[in-house]
Design goal:
8-stranded antiparallel β-barrel; mainly beta; Lipocalin
Length: 141
């Protein structure tokens, strides 16, 4: 089981996160929180490393994987972006194989929390404590 989950969790993922707004009439585009490449390496002893990145920014990842059904990944992304410290916590699960699924792409689903405030790029501040949902699908699966 560990080798199967380890091989599924390791790799480069397409990451997308969304604001947790329960208003069904909210325009889908207004829910966008972030998008990135997510590179994860896991080991048999439960360690996780990697990076989350896009053009002009990158956060280094450290954390762990707990093997099980489903496997649970916890990691923190930390780095300097435009001279400011960014720190985010991630908790997610490896989506199990769906028995009647057709061409299922490996996926992660979970939550992201902004740990420290940082500039928002528009002269304001993105506050700490914001929690959003995210999913990621494995590239070249």
């Amino acid at each position: 089981m560990q080798n199967i989950v380890q091989s599924v969790a390791s790799g480069t993922w397409t990451y997308r996160s969304l604001l947790n707004n329960p208003d069904l009439s909210a325009d889908f585009d207004s829910l966008k929180f972030g998008k990135a490449n997510l590179f994860i390496e896991t080991s048999a002893d439960g360690k996780l490393s990697g990076r989350i990145y896009d053009t002009g920014w990158e956060l280094e990842l450290t954390g762990s994987i707990q093997y099980g059904s489903p496997a649970t990944l916890w990691f923190q992304g930390k780095g300097m972006v435009d001279g400011s410290l960014w720190v985010y916590d991630y908790l997610c699960y490896v989506v199990p194989h769906i028995p009647n699924g057709v061409q299922q792409i490996p996926a992660l689903v979970g939550s992201i929390t902004r740990v420290v405030p940082h500039p928002n790029g528009n002269g304001g501040t993105s506050p700490a404590g914001v929690v959003c949902s995210f999913y990621a699908v494995l590239q070249n699966s």
